[in-house]
Amino acid sequence: MLVGSNAQAAKPLKVFILAGQSNMEGHARVETFDYIGDDPATVPLLKQMRDADGKPRVCDHVWISYFTGSDDHNGEGFGKLTAGYGSRQKPDQDGGQIGPEFTFGLTMDKALEEPVLIIKTAWGGKSLYYDFRSPSAGVYQRTPQDIEKDRNPEAGSGHYYQLMIEHVRHVLGDIKRVCPAYDERAGFQLSGFVWLQGWNDMVSRDVYPIPKKDDKTPRYANYSLWLADFIRDARKDLQAPHMPFVIGVMGVDGAKPNENIAAFREAMAAPAALPEFQGNVVAVPTAPFWDEPLAAIQAKYDQVRQMGFLLKTKDKHSPNADGSMSEDQQREYLKRFEAQLISPAEAALRKRGASNLGFHYLGCAKTFALMGKAFAEATLQFMNDESKRP
C-alpha cells in the first residue's frame, strides 16, 4: 500500500477511493430518510445518519473530496462528510442527495475512531468500455455501429479514468487542504477502493452484442477483462499494489433480474475469483438492498407512463386507436387509469421512500445507506485480515 513519507509511530491517515457512474454519484434524496425508520432492522442505521436534532449527521472525523460534473464543467466539493455529497448539479454545492459515501464514511468513523479521508470521483452515464477504460485495455476500438454512424470516439478513450487518477493524486498532493486533521508526520495509506458502475455497459448492444444461439461466450465477458485491467492499472498508477478493492455488483431488480442483468452481475463479480485477486478483491452484491415494495409500486407508475405514450398513438391496443381523443380527454383517461391502478396509500409510500427511477435504485436512501455500510464492512474486513498477518 502507498504510505506517505515520514511515517512514524502515529497511525497513517486512512484514505478510501470511491468511483463509478450515476449510482456512485447517488440519487437518493434526503427527504427519503424517514422511510429508513419504517423498518425496525434499519432504525439503528437511521439514528447513525442523524444528529439529535434530526438533521443529517456531520462527521467530526471523516472528510471528503468529491470530483464530479459534466463533460464541459468538472469541479470539486470538499469538507466534513455529511449528506449532500450525492449527485450534484453544481460540483461545489450540496445536492440534497446521498450515494454510498455517507454511510460508508459513518461506518468507518464508528469502526476506526481516527481521521478518515474519502476521495470520490463519479459521473453519470459513463461506461467502463470507453469512459473509464484503463491503459491496459488499450484504446477503444470503434464498433460497426460507430462506423455506420460516423462516430469517431477514440480520442476520449479512458478520459474519465485519467480524471479519476489525476484527482486522487491532486488531493494526495495536499491532503491538509481537504483534511485539516492530517498529520504529515504519520503520512497516509490508501486503504480501499470501491467501484459502483455498470448500467451503460449493460445496455450497450454495440459493444456487447447479444450472442447468437450457437455462441457460448458470455455476452459481457469483455467487461470482466476490462474490470480486471482497471483494478491492476488503478493500483499501479496510484502506487498501491495491494490496495483492497470492492466491486459493488449491480442490484437493480433485486432477486428477480432479467436475463441481461443476471449475466451482467456474473461478469461484474468475475474478477474477484481470479487467483491474483484472492484476498484483496471482493464482489459485494447490492441486490439484497433493492426495495421490493417500492419497486412494485414503481412498476405501476411505469404502466401509467406507458399508457401515456400509448394514448398518443394509433396502435390497435391504444384506447385512442382511432385518434378521436382530445388532449384533455387523454389526460382525463390517464388520470382515471392511474387512480384505478395505484392506491393513495401506495402513492404516499412511494413519495416517502423513493425519489428516482429503477436504474437509480429508485432514489431510495435506505438502499444507498445499506450499500454504503456493506462496502465499508467489506473494506474493514480486508483491513482486519491484513492486521492479523505476521
Could you list some keywords that capture this structure?
globular, alpha/beta, 390 residues, Rossmann fold, disordered N terminus, 2 domains, 9 strands, 39% helix, 14 helices
Structural features, described:
Helices cover 39% and strands 14% of the residues. It has 390 residues and is α/β, with parallel strands linked by helices. It has two domains: 13-291 and 363-387, Rossmann fold (3-Layer(aba) Sandwich), CATH 3.40.50.1110; 292-353, no CATH class. The protein is globular.
Question: What is the strand and helix layout of this fold?
Answer:
Elements: E1 13-20, H1 22-25, E2 28-29, H2 33-36, H3 43-49, E3 62-70, E4 73-80, E5 97-98, H4 101-112, E6 116-122, H5 144-148, H6 159-173, H7 175-178, E7 188-196, H8 199-202, H9 221-237, E8 245-249, H10 259-269, E9 281-285, H11 292-311, H12 327-341, H13 344-353, H14 365-387
Parallel strand pairs: 1-6, 1-7, 3-6, 7-8, 8-9
Antiparallel strand pairs: 2-5, 3-4
Helix pairs in contact: 4-14, 9-10, 11-12
